[in-house]
Amino acid sequence: MTTHKRYTGLIEFYRDRLPVSANTRIISLGEGNTPLIQLQNIPRLIGKAVDIYVKFEGLNPTGSFKDRGMTMAVTKAVEAGSQAIICASTGNTSASAAAYAVRAGIKAFVLIPEGKIALGKLAQTLMYDAKIIQINGNFDRGMALVKEVAELAPVTIVNSINPFRIEGQKTAAFEIVDELGFAPDYHCLPVGNAGNITAYWKGYNEYATERVCGNRPVMCGYQAAGAAPFVAGEMIDNPETVATAIRIGHPQSWALAWNVQKESGGWFDKFTDEQILAAQKMLSQYEGVFCEPASATALAGALHDISTGKIPEGSKIVCTLTGNGIKDPEIAMLQCADTKPVTIDASLDAVKRAILDSL
Ligand code: AN7
What we know:
It contains 15 helices and ten strands. Strands 1-2-10-7-8-9 form a six-stranded mixed beta sheet, with helices on both faces. Helix 3 packs parallel to helix 4, helix 7 crosses helix 9 and helix 8 packs across helix 9. The longest helix is centred in the C-terminal third of the chain and has 16 residues. The mean pLDDT is 97. It binds ligand AN7. Ligand AN7 binds next to helix 4, helix 9 and helix 13.
């Protein structure tokens, strides 16, 4: 007899490890359970004996890891009787908040920096019918405003300062260990507000404490060179990077992330926009995995640290690819400016010639 088991999201799946009760109405879009893809061509290309896996979080319902935190944050907001949620966002949080608010039947307000979020993120947030408030300031300013307004208005903040976001996002570490049977030696991820690095560390720690796995990874947090407060050792005021998702100068989980670095024996580093874009292209071109620029920072960092030996050969490495490449079509088109599609006559002859030309 076949038993059918429908996957209905990470809260159901990990409900024993999350703050829900039997009576909680779960707000889910089937998030989580994302593929852990082992890279096959890039390790060969760089000539290093390393196992690199990418956790492709771009395959969540709204195309980013934020959905893991949002299912939990919105579930708890609804449980507490909230009628509206609010966030500041570089794009992905706003898309996720908007979608889960629709699902819950509550209102979403999102503050975004005008002209500084990727087109796909704006399009989806519009489609989910959120109240979009564009500001002539960056994410950090938006976050400060959200904190102030939440003191005055009946709205629940769903940025990662909401502890339920971290609870939901820790499940990505559970999935990795459940699949591999161990924690990786190194876990690499892009750092903006540093909520996600905090969440992964919490997940790995919970599993290690309960002996689900015997080891904990070294946590490597990578930033864009123009938005690298953790590398500077201080907040910065005018962050700039092509990776708009991590264009953040005042990380909200500052102290928590430093704690992760110390406890895990990890480090922060920064990479230029050129290095980030090269890593994004490389993943698409050699592995068939299309992530957004911010996400590629994880691979840029891992490849750099592998090349210097800081991450030694023989290591098992997981890179989190936080968001889907389709979210930022403008950058993708720029990346491929030199490889325009050929346009031909709609005839068999012309198609044959076009194929033979490029064989
Ligand atoms: C693709 O959407 O902060 O270090 O407002 O979208 O947990 O902040 C996005 C962050 C990495 C950084 N990769 O994660 C927002 C927002 C992608 C992201 C990060 C973000 P954190």
